Protein 1
Amino acid sequence: MNALTAILAIDVGFEFVDLVLDRGGELMAAKHRVGRASAAVAIIDAIELFSREADFEIARLGAIRLASTGGINALLTRRGARVALIANEGFGDTLYLGRQNRRDLFDPVARLASPSFLVRRSDIHELRGRLDAVGREIEGLDMTGLSAIADVIASDPVDAVAICLLHAHIDATHEQQCAEFITRRFPELPVIVSHVADPNPREFERTVSTCLEAWLRPAQAGMMRQLDQALAERGFAGSLQFANGSGQLQMLEAACANVSAHLTSGPASAARHAADLSQASDAGAAIAIDIGSTTTDMALILNGKPVMTRHLQVAEVPLRQVVNDVQSCALGGLARALPDGLGGITLAVSNDPAWPTLSDCLACLGLISLEPADDAVGRLENLARETGTAGIENAARAAVIAVERSVAQAVLRYAVQRNVDPARTTLVAMGGLGPALVPGVVEMLGGGRLLVPALSAVAGAMGLLTMAPSQSTRIRVDADLRELGPKGVADCVQRLRSGLRAIEGGAVERLDIDLAPTASMHPFGIHLDIPGAGPETITAAFAEQYAARFGMAPPFTSLHVFAMTLTHSEAEPERNWPAPPENISLPGRSDGWDCKAVSGGFMMTRSTG
Amino acid sequence: MGLQGSERRLHDDEIDRMSRKTAIRPLDLDVLQMRLDAIAQGMQETVFRTAVSPVVREGADASCALFSSEGELLALSDAIPLLLGALPGAVEATLRRFPADGMAEGDMFCMNDPFDGGTHLPDIVVLVPVFSRGHRIAFASIILHHQDVGGMRPGSVPPDAKDIFQEGLRIGPTRLARQGAILPEMEDLVRRNSRVPDIVLGDIAAQIAAAQDAARSLRAIASEVGEAQFLEAAAACLDKAEQQAASYFAGLPRQTFQGADGLDPTPGLPPVEVKVCISFADGRVSADFTGSSAQVAAPINCVRSGALSGVLYAVLSITPPGLYRNGGILRRIILTLPEASVVNASPPAPVNARTGMVRCITSAVLQGIAQAVPERMPAANCGMSYVLAFSGIDADRRSFIVTEIIAGGAGGGPLSDGADAVSTDVGNAMNMPAEALEEIAPVRLVSARIRRGSGGSGRFRGGDGIERVYEALVDGVSVSLRGERFERVPDGLLGGGRPSPSKATIHRVDGSSVALSARSAFTLDCGDRLVVESCGGAGYGTPA
């Protein structure tokens, strides 16, 4: 092994740790079960096992890159930190009021569409003190009240403190005062302030972002630090890098300071691999479908890159960040096939061992390489009996069709909401179950092209190999673009540059700007690859990107700039994925399809109607 | 077509339609209906992201739908159910005035007349025919609550209106655009009548953008399968929904269930009552509102679309999730609405505060339907939402208008407590964030809290309502408040308790207080505070 050049990419899912070792272009892959250990221990165990299998020394690795769905799984199972929230007087109910809309429009039992589980009611504290809409102080912060809140926290400890005060995105003074006080009292306690977690208007959304970061941070940052320490103990002196939801790699301290940005790192990494292969095979617009143990993740790829968004729902939690536009639904190999009460079959998250899992059904049909579990036959017989289906194979097939239909429905909604016709895109089948299920989804959608990566089962880890380390910094601007003028824009970029350290060999710069025709409209994010552009370039880019998204010109000619973010990335490595050998067997289904080896995988086209 | 079809008896042609064989496989129909639903939802995303006015951007007061080439509802967005019944009538009226066969690519139409398929005047409907390779394949339509369409008060929702003429500009089905360009005379009409024409025109542009989005997606499907096949499949989706609805209704008890509710008393007006008989027979649901009060000279009447929204919402809340949500269901709904009544007003009745009446209708219908499926239904929800509008001139001499909608509590049961502070039944508007309100208007949101203890008691308690406190930051802030349940609150179910009524109070800076009625128009001066409290939901079951 070349000293300190090999890269180990790791994607941690609910059931498996996926590993890919890149030794100067030579790839080795493995999947190891997570087991019951903590995430950091499971990762270390998997690395050690893989080091023996692949014959490498941990101490001689150049870099270890990590993506994980740990945060998503924590949200799905509602296991997070106990958080205390400090809010303005009169606004302690913000999280519980949500935006007052409900989750399911036609359920006669209304459920609020708010992730109120993030903070217990009794852990929310109101504090006097108020700013107005332009950040002027109307009432000073009540330090006596803050001291009393600290006393309550001291007597009934929490794992993290979230602070979200009105208009803090405009002026952070009150939040900073509050955070400094709490940190002095509780130096060990993570304190998350909203003007850092999500410096954007609308208090409910900002409160959610802040509480989510606090809810995730103790466990996620703890895992990252444990991993760093355990690797150091094993002599690892290379670079430990963590993927975030926008497909960038960050170092330990940056990652620990913003763990919610890493929430969707697993799906983002898989999307990155799908994008790499789509571009290499000229697949055009594509949708990556990654079907794993617990979730199905979708990601749109245009022009060879994953599409970005600034609004995402993850496990019913609204996420307001610039991330890959991935969407997940709770459907994976561990979902169980049950009678739907109408003579059909539905798939649901269930612990009832009487019903077969999706993996049982696929294994029974020989669509995945796993052997059926010992008691799978009994479960399938139960399903066949209860649904009046003749034989376990037919029951398994009916369950698989039900899943394909659900995935097709999810893909449809996802695609059409993004102005994309799924029948005209290439679907990319990823994850342990993707190759088995996505061909059926393509057929249901009326599509005709399917890309199956040769290493689809470890797609997330593969995606990590082409990511580049990056750093970014953000400033609030809150000014009219015309008033800002060329000098103002240049000053902003200069301020941003001064906040980033130099990257050896030069950096690729990307400027993201949040702006809207008026200050009260929803911000719309645009990006410029060559920062330093003036107001005219920004206006033109806004008009072009707005029209591309909404099919209309912006309603007014004015532009309000909310914020700017500058990202410095190392140059992304050029990868040329070889076509798989002709004799390699295609994972999953291939009946009714013409199959051709392409760069890094197989391009399949439907050969029958 | 549309609602007319729903009023017909089951004729031979309908039997043929429901049993006819189509070349489209059932699975393909599922996929097509999903795609149509997703396109409608995509339209809505576009509207919300591009709208200029806060009531749409923050409050989500808009709805989108697709219609067949013949004008029958094909797909609906997940929007405010209050608007569920709004679009079929508007499309039908527009097609009466502008027959579809005479339409060309690039044509667009609009209307807002409540008495010709609309709802109330701020809700302008935009209708765009969609063509693929020269064939008309569908219509895309969007209804959106515009910030101001003229009339006696800013915001065009005057709580003291006595007739429709005081409520604003009334537009019958009208051509909006030709060859994709808005007609100059239509833009001129908006500029001459609205207090905030740029906002209205900006929102109309958002409606058009959404329709054009939908047109692109529909064309993609049609070119993929062929226009003729698309039309056949769309018709089959409608037939299948009708079949599904008929099958479901046929399984419900063949009985007549009664429901009734009423609005708060208004000085000078007779009591306003809604009565409904719900029955299921011949695979249809019938809602007969005979016995409801005659229309009144106050803006609390609603028109036919409101009654349809209430009934359609109630039906969709009990039907199985797999049911296609399209006009096939409307074919199986029979509405009987007395003319010139509060549930089916005639000109020149004012209708701007129709929300309370639609909530009242929905409450009565849900009462009736709950008797047919008691195991699924909770106790009555708050049955109201506030519509609150602030307007005036700020310290920089700029005019402002901002509208927000405030929900109440959900009913308790059947298996858990009712949710606090949530939009229920035909409501689903979002609230106005303090940071958005304060950026737009010289009004401070002092507090926004759950109104604890306002839900009815019970084994499963009713959800609590909301309390919001506002402070004027300049003199002369005009306020229009439309609420309900100030006096008449719903009963609990199976021994559950009644919720606390709604309440609104002004606390003047001089120390005096004024208790407000359900529909009030008043002015706040700098430092004055307005406290708005919404009703909770009713309790379910005798408290332990």
Note: Chain A has a mean pLDDT of 91.
Protein 2
Amino acid sequence: MTTVSLLNPLFLVGLLAVGVPVLIHLQRLHQSRTQHFPSLMFLERIQIPSRSRRRIRNWLLLALRSLALILLTLAFTRPWLSGATAGAAAGGEGKVVVVLLDNSFSMGYEDRWPKALEYARDVVGSLDAADEAAVVLFSDTATVIAETTADPALLQQALDDLTLSSRTTRFTPALRMAKRLFLESDRPNRELVLLSDLQASGWNGERSELPQRTLFRWVDFLLPEDGGPAPSNLAVASVVIRREASTDRERVEVITRIANRGPRPILAVGVSIELNGRPLEDRELELEADESKLVSFGPFSLPDGVSTGVLRLTGDALEADNGFFFVLSRAQALPVLVVDRPRVDGRGSGFYVQRALALAREPPLRVRRVAASGLGRESLEATAVVVLSDVAMPTGDRAEDLVDFVEKGGGLLVALGSRTVDSRYQALSEAGLFPPLTGTTVRRGSGSAAARIAFFDRTHPGFEEFAAPRSGDFGSARFFRYHRLRPDPEKDQVLARFDDGEAALIERQVGRGRVLIWASTLDRYWNDFSLKPIFVPFVLQAIRRLSDHRPLQPWHRVGDVLSLSDLIFDDEKSGSPEAPEAIRITDPSGQRSVPQELLNLDQAGFFRIELSDDTERVLAVNVEASESDLTPLDPTDLAAAIAPREIDELDPGRSGPKRDSAQSERLQGLWRYLIVGVLMLLVGETFLSNRRLRGGRA
Amino acid sequence: MSRPRVYSSLKQSASGRFLDPKALARISRLDLLARTLVEGFISGLHRSPYLGRSLDFAEHRPYMPGDDIRKIDWRVFARTDRYYVKQFDADTNTNCTIALDISKSMDFGLTGISKFDYGRYLAACLAYFSHKQRDRVGLVTFDREIVDFVPPSAKHLELVLQTIERTTCSRDGSLWGPVESVAGSIKRKSIVILISDFYEDPDRIVAAMGLLKGKSNDVLVFHLLDEAEIDLPFTEAAEFVDLESGERLPVVPQAARSEYRERIEAHISELRAKLTEGGIDYAFFNTSTPLDFALFSYLSNRKKAARVR
């Protein structure tokens, strides 16, 4: 039975108050100030209107005015019809329901995911004929898996074959998606059903207002029972890999921090490590509430090639974050050939370069030092980068070999000095290896007259390391002498300039290789650059740039997006770049596919990239550690950040949602109709009283 | 409540020779009041006026030394060469009946003295004055019927004054019945003085007065009203209560004042016109006017209007 209830019954007092002035007026008329007068003989003949004021003359006007006041008071009491169905508000116009289904990996705790799926099906199944719904699957992104439709079959179908993701939780994209769906629907009544474990880490407090008349519902069976503390959960908080390199082998130690994120101790925590699928070691430990411990594995030797490693945990109910994946490879020393000439001090023009290269760790370098005469095809065969440090340029076959080396992908660092002979240099310049020289050198002298580096392109790829503040002062070095280059705008990129604007460092792409031309020496003869702290990192970075060295990243995070071209190295030995269609990717679930240019790492585990030559690249991907914290947020905080701010706790035992009075009243909005009624009555009262006034005057 | 004994009230007011009615109200003895007042204004007159207006010629008598030579009928002397004086009815001890309205409406006054007190003082003065002129004075007090009746007699002055002094207003009034009774009680031509606020239809009043006048009486009418009854000076809306009927009427004085004044003025004018037309002497007294002044003015005018035959 439908009954009328009042949200603000106290306003009914106003209804009584409406009559009070009338009563007071009448009472005051009756008990007005009294004046005794000898005779009312003459006053009676005059005061007929005043006497008649005490009588109601126009009952219709009184009725209109009284009714208007009554309706106005009732509007303030906010009446609503209790017993009306959820979908019958304001005339039964139906509603639009948006189901936000959380499939972040934290929903894999115990049976949350199947329960959420089941409830989503119940919501879809309970729609009325006038209702429509949409389903949004969300984690850190939101995807509409079922656009708004009134067809329950389509909605149920969309819920089929849904699986958990490896991603984290973020509510904002899902709420924005819901808002878009609400606004696109013509249904005046709206319901947002959030099926989520309401992780606190997924909410940054950002306001995301929903449209008016939106009923917000959440479920309690995905949260800790009776509002209790969050469940405990184990996670790999961090991993550090320590390498110990020796002459013939490399050993690594894997140190991991295991954390118990929860209010209860976990007494039997198992930690194990696998390498290339083979168990190596395991440990057992106990963790108190909110405690973490370090566990060290190894050191153990790495085989050749890329190895895959897994850290596994046992002891909690959330499997998704119980594995930590990583890749390792033995460090490959990069062969560098330093070509220099002896000097009178016995150190050679490449001495300082060689000393800088000896400090390299990532990648390690294998440096060979030869004289200019030793530069040839044989020496270039096992070399990745060649450094020509103030030596005479090769000519003839050696020049051709050098050009060929660079064109095939080799790197060349040239430091120009006194041995730079114009004609030999010119020949290589004409071969396209170098920018031409002007034929003059700049002599600036020492002391304050010396030139300094006034500009260095710290944003250039390969030199981003110097972009950070206090990463090196190129301006500290003094240059006494340098060559004046003529960079070609179409081929050359000037990476550094002297204070007179002359190019100090030029990069040129030659075939698949690169050339860096340094306009001065890399020793102490023409400058003191080699004595400055910036020298060593510059030389090492230059070598990395020229070698196009890309260190193997031990792991990525779910959600990272990588460029395929960045991942695939051209194989200079095969001499042909990889064609995308020749590549296959196998994701951690075992699904094999042709990759797109952008690779979305959306699962935890190993992505294996198979190249055409049957070689393989392996990417290790791990879940975000933040998602391992299962602490839920307070639903009222979330509700407070979205409008309208109703909260309704669902009772799983009922067939439909339980709704509080404010929600029902807001949905029905009867007060609006009362206000319209008041306005209509006042219009009628105005018309009637004006008509009466005109009639009285007539 | 005893009235305070006042000594200075016997002195004339600083503004003139007439006594403030409020001052008169402080005189405890009515006889003293009447005497003071009457002798006060008589002393200011060249000759003592005569209350009676009806100077009907009665007879001649031979002149005797000491007679007022103004009474010598010079026509007779012309015809007879003898001195004869006229003798009027007034000289023959006329009955003077003072009818005082003591209905509740008379017990109203916002100027410091009620119409009732003013009327009492007026009645007392007239009684004293009449007695001083050797008339036989009587009194009738009435509201809706005769309350007190003192037959006219030369010895009844004290009784009249006492009756006036003790009388009170308590009931509603009606003019016709009492006047009819008075008219019926008068056997001989008399002076009838009616003191009232005349809150009745003018025609009915005139008709009632006609009962008295029809018997050849000399009828004097003193119409008393408080200034508030004339101006309606009230500022606040109030429920006006009729003193006699108890009827209540909400009144907004500001809204009613103008018309009310017109009506009361019209009433007074109509009464004056119709009574005068009927040979009845009409005098309107505003109770804020000094009683002796009002009386003096009236008697002066009356004296001028007298004809000596």
Note: Residues 1-18 of chain B have pLDDT under 50 and may be disordered.
Protein 3
Amino acid sequence: MSLPPFAVLLPVAIAFPLLVAALLVSFAALMSRTVRDVALLGTTLVEVAIAFALFSRTLGGLPVGYWIGGFAPVMGARSPVAPGIALYADPPAAAVVAMLSAIFLAVIFYAWRYFRVVEEYFHVMLLVLLATMTALVLAADIFTMFVTFELMSVIAYALTAFRVEDDDALTGAFQFAMLGSIASLLMMMGIAFVYATVGSLNLAQISRSLGDTGSPLAAAGLAMVVCGLLFKLTAVPFHFWIVDADTAAPTPVAALSSGAMTAVAAFWIARLTGTVIGPLSPEIGATFGHILLATGIVTVWLGGILAVFQTNLKRLLAFSTISHMGIALIGIGIGGTAALAGAGLYAVTQALVKAALFLLTGLVVHRHGMMDIRAIRRDLDPKHWLGCAFIVGGFALAGAPPFGLWAGKAILEEALPHGILGTALFVTLAGGAILTGGAVIHAALVAFFRIGRPPSYGAPPLKDASDLSEFEADGASPAHTPMTLVAAPLGLLLLAAAVPFLPGAIGHAFQMASVMLDAAAYRATLLDGQVTLRAVPPATLPGITVSLVIAAAALLVPLGWTVLRHELPGARLLRMLQAGHAAMLNDYILWLLVGFTALIGWVLIAV
Amino acid sequence: MMAWLPFAIVGWIAAVALYGIVASRNLVNMVACLTVLQSATYLLFASIGYVRDAAPPILYAQPPPERTVDPLVQALCLTDIVVGAGVTAMLLAMVLQIHRRTDTISTRALRERRRR
């Protein structure tokens, strides 16, 4: 284990924002908006500092662990027993915490001037969200994971419904809350099954006790936990919540839930796969891999295809999140260091780019007052620089160099298996990139440059343009855009572009992936206190040719919309898919239950 | 044989609750069925921790009991109850707001409003 000074950073990173949030709530009446903003920004800067201190510490390969209350593992009958609750930061966890703090900093910087009037609850809830997400990433205990997951979700539900005057926001938040609560309860039942098998909640202890037993009850329990995480990851068929929630949530909230929360869920799926599911038994590990692979493929295609047909900018971005998370799932499902390194790099940089795009959408709302590209197109004074920013973001989503998504996808492509499956996966990855990136580029071209035809096939009729997003951006007058609103998304895009070029970044991605997959080292460090230093493999930047071709192919989407004027052969299916995503809450819940049953059934049959 | 009865009851309650959630078109009804699902999880935790012929886990009692039921699971159950209470309160607050704004709490009506 590491020296005490660094270990103390872990609980401080969680407790400090909570403390500031408590102070804000208690003394809200005495504080002006400025004081609250300063407190929020200051706390976030402290969190960023802590995150980067942790990150630089673990980059050398030295993980940082902390047992809460000093309840370190004790010697049991044969091996160490862990009665306490641990917080653990190894290189991948520290990287995700750093990503979280960077996104939060950008979003809070943005929200500072975005809302003209906002109650103190917003600042308080953002701080609690930051604290719970950090705690979720640092948790080394399956019940701590559940509690922080639930807390993060509850705050997200409340933040999505922040503008209670907007009934779209309320509906979206209620659907999110209902689906999320059901998924969490089923996840908790899964944790209960795992506990029933092992008798411990500590992840390292579970890994040690479960290893090689191949218990079907534990497998079913883990399947339920993974399903709960897949819900937060927006995998099909658990993806319905993000479509309505992100469309109606306030822009900073949508940026956080689409960008950061999904990446954290992906991190935890990879963590569970590496430490618990993999060692359980080779058959179960392989089954979970197949499940994640199949789910990922369906998710990529569904998200990508539907993204092309959206006219609402935020809804489009929500579908593209779904698609990109499918790519991350494929990487986790293939297994192995290289695929996981690619998937991890992809998920983290996707979070940065997606948050940037959502913040840009907020700028669109701020200047044009609407989110529908058909309405923006009719505006007399479209802002071309916004359109250019969207096009750059679209190319980033399509995997164009130099943005991190290129590096992640290229590493993933190199790790694909050979044969028919590998070719199918390559086509899926390329398809997802082209469809999502192309959809964003097409939307920007239609809205800001009036090039091309807006999407049809089940797009909702254009309502009176004024009633869209009137509840947002009651900020500064559209004539003057504060610099912070522009700086935050551009900063995130620059960060996403810089990540692959940071010294040793690719090598560290491989090192982090191998750390995630090494259950033995995890157990040894947490339970026995033995640290194995892991070398950083020298790695070069992946090739750019394939990625450039695929990114250029993203232009096929706007080209297709302009050229293909006849009714597409699959138009009826497309309309059904669109209608399926504007259905009753009961339908979404039914899909969630179908997904749970199918995945758990698959695991039980294979065991 | 009786050992699996609590778990069968957990399964039954969960099934009834899930059916109720899927079949309810009134938002308050949906939240109430979610509460029933929460009860199923409480029962699951309690059943897992049960040890036959064991004392409650009061370890400071004199003399200390030789076998107790699992106290960890009871702590999990309490956490679960607290989280469930918070979520239910928030869901009902949302339903109240939805009713205040749209004068309806039917899921079908919510879909129609969105489509319009």
Note: The mean pLDDT of chain B is 88.
